[in-house]
Structures are given as structure tokens and as C-alpha cells.
Amino acid sequence: MPSPIALNPPSPAPSIFKKKKSLGQLSSVAAAASYFSAVHEADARARSHDTSPTSTPPLSLSSSVTGSSEDTVLHESDDNCNGLTYPLTPPTSEQVFNTVHTEFGHCANENYRCISQHNPEIPVTEHEIEEPPYYILITTYISYLVLIVFGHIRDFFGKRFAKQYFTHLMPYDGYAPLNSDFDSFYTRRLKRRMDDCFSHPVTGVAGRTILVYDRYSEDCNYTQVYSGTKTRALNISSYNYLGFAQARGGCADAVEESIKRYGISTCGTRLEGGSNELHVTAEALVARFVGQEDSLISSMGFATNSTFIPALVGKGSLVISDELNHASIRVGVRTSGAQVRMFKHNDMDSLESLLREVISQGQPKSHRPWKKILLLVEGLYSMEGSLVNLPKIIELKKKYKFYLFVDEAHSIGALGPHGRGVCDYFNVPPRSVDVLMGTFTKSFGAAGGYIAGPKSLIDALRVRGHTGMYAEAMSPPVLTQVIASMASIMGVASPPLPTKATLTLSPSSSMSTLRSSEGEVHPGMAPASAIPSWVSLPSFLSDGSEARMRIRRLAFNSRYLHAGLKKLGFITYGHPFSPIVPLLIYNPGKMATFARMMRARQTPIVVVVVAYPATPLVTSRVRFCVSASHTKDDIDTILEACDELGDALDLKHGYGERWPFEEIIKRSVELVNNV
Amino acid sequence: MSDTSSSTLEPLLTFLAYSFSKLESTFYKVPGSAVVARYVKSSHQNDPGRTVLELILVIFAIRTLLQSRTREDKQAKNFIEFSEKEVDELVDEWTPDALVQPLSEWEQRDFSSVPIITGPNGPKPTLQSTGKTVLNLASFNFVGLAGSEHIKEKAIETLRKYGLGSCGPPGFYGTIDVHLDLERAIAKFLGAESSILYSQGFSTISSVIPAFCKRGDIVVADRSVNFAIQKGIQISRSTVRWYDHNDLQSLEDALISVEKERKNRKGPLTRRFIVTEGIFERDGEMVDLPKLIELKLKYKYRLILDESISFGTVGRTGRGLTELYNVPASQIDMLVGSVSNGLCSSGGFCAGTSFVTEHQRINGTSFVFSASMPALLATSASEAISYLQNTPSVLVTLQENIRVIRAVLERTEGITLLGHRASPIIHFCLRSMPQTLTVTPPTPDHDAEERTLQDIVDDALENGVFITRGKHLRNQEMIDSRPTIRIAATAALSKKDVEKAAGIVKASIVRVLGKRR
Q1: Candidate from A204, A270, A361 with C-beta closest to B162
Q2: Residue A40: pLDDT band by 50, 70, 90 thresholds?
Q3: Among chain A residues, CA nearest to B170
Q4: How high is the ipTM of this complex?
Q5: Backbone Cα Rg of chain A
Q6: pLDDT for A540 beyond 50
Q7: Helix (H/G/I), strand (E/B), else coil: A24
Q8: B231 contacts in A (CB within 8 Å)?
Q9: B contact test, residue of A267, A458, A500 with most B CBs within 10 A
Q10: Would the CB atoms of B345 and A265 count as touching at under 8 Å?
């Protein structure tokens, strides 16, 4: 009988056994006692939570934060605040969990799974944008008006009577002000009022839960005072779609091994002495993962767009860009010198009429035909949660002959039955897209970005993009995280091929391994030769079963939160399968209150609130980022919190049928399958 | 006849009168309507024309409000009307260029000659192509932090506590305590008030410049600043004045002429910035910092100094130019440096007053919109700083090694050694070229020169020394500078190894240049 502490034999680090054992014993053998004491303590703590954050943590096994790795699983002084540290229902002896509950929640119920796939029989439709009642819009405008008027009054008198606060806004000693008071008005007078909701310092793993530093402000958010305590909160904010943000497990073990073997840095740019074999391996794996011929890797996601787009387009080219594209794309386009035209977000009619116009008119003034037209879209939009209408774009592409660049920063890993992004979701062959770009920050728990496409294109970008010559190459631990997490999503083909002793020789010959594989079906497994021999993943990772479970859990959680919020009566945006779930709040005052009240709950929840300028002025929102690491109980907790806050703050303005909270959690599976 | 017509009209008229009175009564029921009515009545009494005029104004206002904000291109003068059929034909006829031009023969050769390292990078890495171990004078491992066991341990410890990725931008729970620790460590190390951490060195300054320099501001910059600065200035859309490379006299002239222009135009006071590098990435020249600061204070400019190369490599403990020249870091408004070069980790920083750094936390594009740095890279950098503070002897070793390399290459025929003698990157170019870096017409044959230099690089590699050309995107850079070979000195190699390596480079130069003659 496998106990919950059972670990997989191929796990390379024996020390892990011990750690897992200690956790396992705690949660099964001593489950009842510790569990009840934890609940009791949690209750007590929650009652005193707002007033005295310095309560002694009861379950602390070791308070040393940077101590030896022996007891780091439980290194955080923590109590089981409503199931954040340990599951509310202790696992039965049949259930085997390979993860730490605070990083990746334990959820064994196979009903709470769903497959993220587009149904080809249903045409892709635009998401209906629900409108709030007029009084909400009017009060929102009035709120901003009051904020602006008060801000200007304070500026007016402040500049005259409290000059010390305005030194950087006023000319002094012949220097112009460092920033103009007009430009910084929004930041100073509107954002500062809710600065406590942003840039909250955290510690530990940004997994299912996160430890946030407690802080308060005595001077209206000019400065924050840290009380020195930390609170564990449910994390529905980090981009951790597949839950690979983990300090334990196969990927972290591989990263540790890579640090021992390769060190921290590759000491240079890709073209000037910083190219490592790991780069070549990772690039080949990424290409195989997304189903393109070749790929390149850049050490920063933002820079992937901002430094490679200029290598694709230039003067005489036209860029057609969705109006809600990310800032990195805009920076890239601006540095490229190409002309830009925008089309209405995700509106295919607007896109087609724009295409007809620009192709027929040609370049402005000269009317010469454009050298090329590049369409820049995102797979999943980070503020809206909306999905690109890829099938329609591919159709338009055939007719209008533009090149297509899809930024899959959020969708790669998170969408599709195999986690291969929007192409996988819509079952569109990946090679029908010219350039596939994505990042490793979100689904892979790493950092940086990639661009994938035909080999000729990628080689040209390697040489002509800014990153290859001027920017530092990606460091080995990050590369290893990419390789390990990606290989576990793909699954590693079990019979290791006769070892190709010399994997790759030079950048040009490195692609030989890829070419041989061109005949393979796209969302297939990775051959064992595609990952370094020293990366030994535990069997549940290398056979891909764990990742399949993660992908299906993510799809379930996303749909459940979407549907649950809808049934509670909220206005949400976005696609049901999108792990990004924006909940519309509108009034700026409610936005800050919402974030604060979520954080002050018995089970603290950290949320991201976004407002102008990231969104239009009136549609302030809270943005949930669902992860596979959340359990169904976690989503319930969030729904319950939203339910209560929604009543308190008058946020429920959606149309459609409403269900009480209890019914939603009871009929969750039905809800998810019938959205 | 008239009687009948009036009788048919009668019900209509009564209906009109009824509906009018009904309308009137409902109008008066609306709160505040009496005021409007009184206003209209009184204004009409005085001047009927005014009522008409006001009515027109109201209609105009409504029309303006309803009009779409963005004017369509269709209204532009240049717009040509086409029928749908004509548009279809034009769409069919249009054939776009290829997305990218294939690599030229030279690009192909250049690209395929990039060596790939197997195993860890360091002073003596193993190459994948030959399996041989080479002496590394190409990678940025100035103080020899690559492969430090202590840093590795620290990184693993961090990994086990924080995982790898930060999974979010700094604003949204991506600010980890180790980032704040590193920011404080850098600020304390430099003696600045505060600092801000970016997750890539290259993207740091190209984000810092547009955060402060806006349209209409004046930027005075060195003509041969690195590519990242050029991009930053381009994005900022400020008015740029270039001065001659590392020529502070030319800088002063530019500052005087800007001031003169402003006085002539009587324009408003705008922000003014001097942007330059501490040690130039392009040729290893070093700026005369005390003189620069004197000028900046005299003409009331703010200084953005890129210390990507000099931070962690010069000065007694590696604090960079400020330590070398004994200038307080507070004199430099925005001190930008690289965590990846000097500290052998990844990322970049900008140090300055808290106003400067806090402003970037909202306005630095690549700070705001990018995920923060992985925690273990931040702790590695913090360790690197404490290593530098505790072991200043590595910087002495580095300087000695630089001296050894320069001494060997100075005695080599056919090349010109560029740069400052303390610079950890040593550039040299072929001697036949003019002495200034900026090109004077007629343009010399840079392609041929690059090929020769690449031959030297390849030859050196064959003989066991890894060096590289100073690579630039020639058609994208602002100036077409002389092709050079770049040697990166390191403290990790012993004096004997460095002498040997420099000797091999020298031999390669002699061999390749000998063949040319």
C-alpha cells in the first residue's frame, strides 16, 4: 500500500526522502492531533489577526529561514490558517502527493479536471462585454473627478506651503523639475492612495500560497512600515499557471544539479562568449514543444519582444497591432521604425477592413505597396483574459498574405489539451503561424522568453536581433528549469535512443537533431536525447502524467472560477478557459477596499487590482490568475470571499441566472461542464 | 371648402394643443426646469437672435461629443477611393517581401564561428566543437566569480526556499525580499541613497532614459555610446545633441551652444541630461569623471552614467569609476550598472536618490512590465558584492592581468591598442586605420577588416585562446565604428596563463597579418 509519503525511486536526491517523510508523517500519522490544534490556532489567530500580527506560530518546526536545507520544507513558521499549509481533509492512505501543499495544493478528486480544447463545431464568437448600470458609471466618473479636484487643490497649496514635498516637481537652482507634476499627477494623487495594494514584498515560493510581509503606513502611503511579521496568504495573483513555481520536486532537483555543474552565469552574450550547450539543448526542446523548426531564447521576456521585433520589420513595413497589445510589443515596434496601425481588440471585421484599406492604399503619401505587413497579436490578453480568434486570423492570413506574430506569453503551457498554447487549443498547425513568441515566466516557473519559427528566420534573428550581441545570455539554472518543466509537460519517450554522443557541434549543425524529427506528430513526447543526461526526472514527471493532471486541473479551476463568479452575479471578462479571470469593480475606491478586505480575511487572499492606465478609466478590475496548484477548496474560498465582498461593496451587476454560493460549490462539476 | 378643411384640421389641432400642454406640464415637473424656462424666456425677450445662436451652439456641442475621437485616415487628402472589386484585385496583386532576408555568406560564417561551451563557463572552459579546453579571454568573468563554490551554495539554498521564477512583475507580488536586499546592498556598496533592480542588463538603460527624458527635453550624449543607450534615447524622443567620443571639450561646446540656443529662443526651462558611459563598451575608453561632473554642475545638467563595464571591475573594491576617481556616487544622478557583467549574475540596476528610483518603479517600462529577476540570481549578486568588499585583492590581480595583456599586445606589430589602461576590456584594431574611432570619409573597407580580425579570432581559438570580435549590428548602430577584437581580462587566470594567452593572441595576429602581406 503506498503511503502518502511514498516517493518515486528514480528521485536522485536522497535528502528529499527525509524531508518528504517528515511532512508525510506529520500529515498522516500525527494528522488528527496536529490538524485540530492547527485549526484551533488558526481560529485564535484569525480572531486576533487584524490587531496583533505577532502571534506565535504554533506549528513552527524550525524558524531559521536560511538554515540548512534539511528542514526547509517546513522552514516557514506557519500555522495552518484554514487549510493553507495542510489540506483541510487529511489525505487518505491511497493518495500519493509529490508536492508541498503550500506550493502545489493536494487535490485527488478526478472530477475536478477538465480538458482545455476548442470545440470545432461551435464557431469562435466574440465575448459579450456586459455593461454595468448607469449609476455605477456615473459614480465612477464622480470618484475620479473628486480625486482629481482634491489632488489639484493639494498640489496648489502644497507647492506654496509644504515645499519640502515638492522639491522634485519644482524648478530649483536652474534645474528643471525631475518629473513634471502633470505627468506624475496620477501616480501621486490617485495611485498613492492605494499604494499598499501594489508592490507588496513577499518571500518564499510564489506558488499556491505566498508569504507576504505585513506592513502598514502612518503617512498616507508615503512610506510603509514593516512590522517584521509575515502572513501566509492564498495566492491568486502570480503567473504560475501550471504550478511549476516550486522549491521542491523534480524540476528544482534538476536546477540544483545544474547549479553544481554549470554555475550561475554564462558570462556574456550569446555571440560574444556566453553560448553554452544548455542554450542549444533548450532551444531545440522549445522548438519541438511549440512545433516549429527552430527557436531562440532570450534572457528576459520583455526584451524578447522589444529587441527582436526591430529585426523583423523596419522602414517601409507595416505593423498591424491589436489595441490591447502588451507594452513590450509597443516598445519593439516603436524602435523598429515601421508604421503601425491598430485594430479594435479582437475584432476580426475591424481587422479585415483595415487590411483591405492598407493593402489598397499602400504606404502613406507615396502609395507604394508595403514591403510586408506583420500582424502582432497575443494569444491570451493579460488584462482581459480574452483569447485571440486564431482560426479566423489564419483564414485572413491566407487571403491577405500578411505575416503573423503571436505572442503566447500567457497562453503557452496554459491552454490546449497538451499545454502547447493557442495553436493546440484551436487545433491549428503551429507552422501556419510565422513567428511564435512566448515567455517562460508564466507556465514554466522560470524567466525569459523565446521566439520560434522556421530555421532561416530564427538564424537571422539570432544574428540581427539586439539580444544576441548585446544582452546577457540566459543563465544555466533558468535554462534547466525551462528544460525540466517543458520535458515534464511533453513527457520523455521512455526507450532512450542509442545515445547520440555528440549532441550538437555548432549552432548550424545543432539543428540536425531537429530535422530528423520533422516527420513526428507535433504534440508528441520529447526523446530522451533531447534533454541532458544528468537531468533525471522522477517517473511521474517524465511520463507526463503529472503535467497532464496539471493542465486539466488548470482548465477546471479556470472554468470553475469563471462560472462561479458569473453565477454569483459578477461581471467578468474573458474566455472561460482563460486562467486570467478579470472581475470588474469600476469604482476606484472599491478597488482598494476589495484588495484590503481580501487580505484581511480569515484566510488571507492576495489579489491584483488593476486600473487606469493599464485598463480604460472606468473599467477598474481585480485580476485573478488561476493556477493548477489551486485545489477546488481554494477556488471555493475565493468564491466565498467574493460573494461576501460583492454584497458588501455592491459589485454584483451581471445579468443572467444567479445561484447561491452553496449551490455553486455543490454543483461545481456540472457548472464547469456546461459553461 | 375652407369650412371643410378647417373641420378636418380641427381634431389635429386640438391634439397638438393637448400634447403641447401635456409636454409643458411634464417639463415643469422636472426639477430645475423652471430655471431653464425663465432663462430662455428672458433671453428671448432681450434678443431673439441670441436664442438661435445658443441653439446652434448646443447642437454643435452635441455633435462634437458624438463624433468619434480618432479621425479615420479616409478623410485624409491622400486617400484614394476604390471599389470593392478593385480592392480585391489589389489584394491579389500584392506580394510581400520575405519576412527576413536569409543570412549573407559573411553573417553565416560569423554566426557559425561562435564557439559553444560545454560544461560551466569560466577561465578554462571546454568547447563543444573540439572537446578541448581553452583559455578564456572572451567571457565577462572579470573578478573570477564564475564557478565560485560559495555562490553556488548560496544559490542552491535560495532555490530551496524560493523556487526559481518570481512568477510576476514587481508590482504584483513579484517583489521578493531578496530583491530588496540586493537593491539595498548595491546602494550601500556605491554610497547612493537607493537603487532599483532590473531583470536584464541590456534593457536597464534603455528603460531608464525614457523614464526621465521626454519629448522636448535635451539629451547631450557621447557619439559612440553603446547600443542600449542609443535605443533608450531613440525611445525617449528627446532632442539629442551628440558630442565627439570621450572629448569633454566637445561636450562643453555642445553644452554652451544648447544654452545659447535656449537664451535666443527664450524657451522654458527643460530637463537636460548628459548621457555617457564610464568605460565604453565599444573601445574601453574611460571618461574623465571629475571633469564631467564639473561640467554637469556648471551647466546644470543631470548625469546618466552607464557603468555596465566599470562597475565591479575598477576601483579598490570594484565600486567603479566613483571609487577610482574618489567622487561621491551622489554626484551622479542616475548611475546605471550591470549585475550580469561585474557580478556574474544577471540583470542591471540604476542607483540614485529615492526620487529617481521610485519614479522608475512606475515609469521604467522594462521594470514595470517585466517579471522580476529569479531569486537565486539576486542572492548570487548579493554574495558577489560581499565577496568584492571582503576580497579587494582580486581587483589588484585583475589590474595586473590587464597590464600583462596590454604589455604583450603593445609590442605587437600591425595593431593599435585602444582604450584606457585600467579598462578590463581591451580592444585592438588593425593599424592601417586612422586613430580616431569615428569614421572619416572615405569609408575604409570595414568588411575586409572584420574578416581579417575574424581570422585572428579563429586562429587564436585553434591555438587554445578564446577571444571574440567586438560585435555590432553594423547597419543599426548610429555610427559605423572600426571593427575591433575584444579581450576581456579576468582575475581567475594566473599571471602565467595570461602571459601564455596573450602570447598566443600575439602569435595569431602575426601569423594572420603575415599571410595578408
Answers
A1: A204
A2: low
A3: A199
A4: 0.86
A5: 26
A6: yes
A7: helix
A8: 335, 466
A9: A267
A10: yes
Q: What is the pLDDT of residue B406?
A: 94
Burial class of residue A609, CB neighbours in 10 A (0-12, 13-18, 19+): buried
Residue of B nearest to A369 (CA): B94
For B378, name the nearest residue in chain A, comparing CA atoms only.
Answer: A264
Query: Looking at the domain assignment, is residue A529 inside a domain?
Result: no
The reply to whether residue A442 touches residue B167, judged by beta carbons under 8 angstroms, is yes
Q: Is the pLDDT of residue A68 over 50?
A: no
- Contact across the interface for A401 and B96, Cβ inside 8 Å: yes
Of A240, A276, A506, the CB nearest to B121: A276
Cell numbers 533558468 correspond to: A478
Question: d(Cα A409, Cα A421) in Å, to the nearest integer?
Answer: 9
User: What residue has cell string 555562490?
Assistant: B151
CATH of the domain at A209: 3.90.1150.10
Domain co-membership, A400 together with A459:
yes
Residue in B with minimal Cα distance to A213: B177
How many Cβ atoms from other residues are within 10 Å of residue B61's Cβ? 10
Question: Phi, psi at residue A537, to the nearest 5°?
Answer: -85, 145
B159 and A439: CB-CB below 8 Å?
A: no
Q: Which CATH entry fits the domain spanning B105-145+392-515: 3.40.50.740, 1.25.40.10, 3.30.420.10, 3.90.1150.10?
A: 3.90.1150.10
Amino acid (1-letter code) at residue A166: F
How far apart CA A633 and CA A626 sit, in angstroms, is: 13
- Separation CA B302–CA A549 (nearest Å): 55
Q: How far is B158 from chain A (nearest CA, A)?
A: 8
- If you measure CA to CA, which chain B residue comes closest to A334? B235
Q: Return all residues near B196 (Cβ < 8 A) that are at least 6 apart.
A: B183, B349, B350, B351, B357, B360, B361, B364, B367
Polymer length of chain A: 675
DSSP letter, residue B270: -
Residue B76 identity (one-letter amino acid): A
For A223, the grid coordinates are: 512610506
Question: Residue B513 in contact with residue B474, Cβ under 8 Å?
Answer: no
Tell me the C-alpha distance between A441 and B154, whole Å.
Answer: 22
Helix locations, B97-176, DSSP H = 105-112, 149-162
Domain with A661 in it: 82-124+190-247+544-674
Q: How far is B51 from chain A (nearest CA, A)?
A: 31
The ranges assigned to domains in chain B are 105-145+392-515, 149-389
**Residue among B116, B122, B152 minimizing CB distance to A277:** B116
B144: left (phi > 0), else alpha (psi -120 to 50), else beta?
left
Q: Strand, helix or coil at B30? A: coil
Q: What is the pLDDT of residues B213-264, one digit of tens each?
A: 998 899 999 999 999 999 999 999 999 999 999 999 999 999 999 999 988 9
The CATH number given to whatever domain includes residue A438 is 3.40.640.10
A538 part of a folded domain: no
- From B338, B344, B354, B346, select the one nearest B372 (Cα to Cα): B346
| Domain limit, last residue, from A477, A492, A507 | A492
Domain B149-389 CATH assignment equals 3.40.640.10:
yes
Ramachandran region of residue A57, left (φ > 0), alpha (ψ -120 to 50) or beta?
A: beta
Count of domains forming chain A: 2
Note whether B360 and B203 are within 8 A (CB).
Answer: no
**Contacts by A506-509, CB closer than 8 A, 24 or more apart:** A506/B112, A506/B114, A506/B116, A506/B128, A506/B129, A507/A275, A507/A280, A507/A459, A507/A462, A507/B111, A507/B112, A507/B114, A507/B116, A508/A459, A508/B108, A508/B111, A508/B112
Using pLDDT thresholds of 50, 70 and 90, give the confidence band for residue A674: confident
User: Whole-model pTM?
Assistant: 0.85
Edge to edge, what strands does the sheet with B425-430 contain? B415-417, B425-430, B485-488, B468-469
Question: Are residues A553 and A642 located together in one domain of the fold?
Answer: yes
